[in-house]
Amino acid sequence: MKIAILLLAISALVTGSQADPGAQWGHWRGPTGNGTSPSADPPVHWNAKTHIKWRIPIPGHGSSSPVVWGDQIFVTSAVGPVEGKDPKTAQKFTLYCIDRKSGKVMWERVAAQAVPHEGHHDHHGFASASPMTDGERVFAPFGSRGLFAYDMQGNLLWSRTDFGKMRTRNGFGEGSSPTLHGDTVIVPWDHEGDSKLIALDAETGEDRWVTPRDEPTSWDTPLVVEHDGKKQVITSGEKLAMGYDFETGKELWRCAGQTQRPVASAVAADGIVYIGSGFRGAYLGAFKLGSKGDIKGTESVLWEKEEYTPDIPSLLLSNGRLYYTARKSAILSCVDAKTGEAHYENQRVDGVRELYASPVAAAGRIYITGRDGSTTVIKDGEDLEVLATNSVGEPVDATPALVGSDIIIRGVKHLFRITKP
C-alpha cells in the first residue's frame, strides 16, 4: 500500500513538471484565459449512460469549476450541514485532488473550518471561487476564509487568512476567482467594504502590491494580458472597466459605462480587450490595450454594444470571433472581434435554457452548458449550427474543463469525466 502511494505521488510530480501548459486546463477560463483550449478534442455526443468514463460524488454544492493538470483534477467545496442560506454550524472548506484516469480521490485537504459570517445566493454554496494550478502548485481560494497554496501532493506551502471579511451585496456570497500568471497571484476583493486588488508572490504568498478600488461588490475574475512587452491586469467593475500595471498595480486606463454587479470575465487577443456585463442594463466594449487615462468616448473604444450582453456567463473569444449570451439565457450572439459586426445576434441555442456556466471551445466546437445539466455543442463558425445536445442527468452551474479527449463536468453533486470511446 505504501509503495502504491509513493508511486502515485511520483507520477503526479512527473506529470506536473513535464506537462505542456497549453494542453492543460489550469484555470477555469482555460490556458488562454479566453475559454478555449488550443489542443483538446473532447467528444461531441454523450448522455447519462454512454461515454461517461466515471462519475464520483463530491460533497457540498458544486459551484466552483474544476481545473486539470496532467492526471490530476482539482475541485473545491464547502462541506457541512446547511440550514438555509445562513448556517449556524461550521463548514469544512475543502480542496479535492482526483485521479483523472480512475476517478478516485488522491487526496483531500480541509483548508479551513469556519462558520460563514454571511449567507449565499440560493443557487450556489459557500465555495464558489475556482482553484488554479501551474503544475507545481495548486491554489484553493475560499474568500474570507483565505487563500491556500499546496504542492501537487497536497502539502501546504503557505496560506493567507488575513484579507478580512467580505460583505457582499444582499448577502449573495463570495465567488470571484483569483488569477495565476507566472509567479504572481491576482486576488480580486470587490465588496461593500474597502475594495482592493491584491498581487501576491505565488511562491511565498507575500504581498507584491495592494491597490484600493472604489467599487462595490462584483464577481468577475481578473485577466492578465501582455501588450507591447508590458503586462496589465484587466478588471471589470460596476463603475469602471480598468487596466492596471502588472508589476506595480498602478492604474493605466479606465472606461465608464458598465452595468451593476458584474460577473462575466474579460477576454483579450491581438491588442484588444473585451469587457461586458448585463444585469440591469447591457454593455459590451472593445478597448485598445495600449490606452492611457479615461478612454470613454475616445478612439481607444473600438466598438460598443448595448443589448444582448452577458450577465453571469463570461465572454468566449475563439478564432477571431466573440461569443456572448444575453443575460444568463441561451440566447447567443457571435460577432467579428475586431469590428463588432455581427455574424448572428440574439439567436436561441436549442437544447439549453438558463446558463451559469461559461461557454468553452476546442477543436472547432463551442460547448454551452445549461443549469439543467444539458450541453449543446455548436460549430465554431459564422453560422449557428447545432451539432449535438447532451446531458449528465443532474444540474450544472460550474464551467466545464476541456483537456485531451475529455470534457470534465462538475455537477451540483458529482464530477464527471466524459471521453471519446
Descriptive notes:
It is a single chain. This protein has a single domain (2-419), classed as Methylamine Dehydrogenase, Chain H (7 Propeller), CATH 2.130.10.10. Helix content is 4%, strand content 42%. The chain contains 1 helix and 33 strands. It has one helix at 2-18; strands at 52-57, 67-69, 72-79, 91-99, 105-114, 132-133, 137-141, 147-151, 156-160, 179-181, 184-189, 195-201, 207-213, 223-227, 230-235, 240-245, 251-256, 267-269, 272-277, 283-288, 293-294, 301-305, 316-318, 321-325, 331-336, 342-348, 360-362, 365-369, 374-379, 386-391, 401-403, 406-410, 414-419. The strands form 8 sheets. Strands 14-15-16-17-21 form a 5-stranded mixed sheet, with no helix packed on it. Strands 1-33-32-31 form a 4-stranded antiparallel sheet, with no helix packed on it. It has a 4-stranded antiparallel sheet with strand order 2-3-4-5. A hairpin with a 5-residue loop joins strand 16 (240-245) and strand 17. It is globular. The two termini are 31 Å apart.
Characteristics:
421 residues, mainly beta, Methylamine Dehydrogenase, Chain H, five-stranded mixed β-sheet, four-stranded antiparallel β-sheet, 1 helix, 33 strands, globular
Give the helices and strands, then pairings.
Layout: H1 2-18, E1 52-57, E2 67-69, E3 72-79, E4 91-99, E5 105-114, E6 132-133, E7 137-141, E8 147-151, E9 156-160, E10 179-181, E11 184-189, E12 195-201, E13 207-213, E14 223-227, E15 230-235, E16 240-245, E17 251-256, E18 267-269, E19 272-277, E20 283-288, E21 293-294, E22 301-305, E23 316-318, E24 321-325, E25 331-336, E26 342-348, E27 360-362, E28 365-369, E29 374-379, E30 386-391, E31 401-403, E32 406-410, E33 414-419
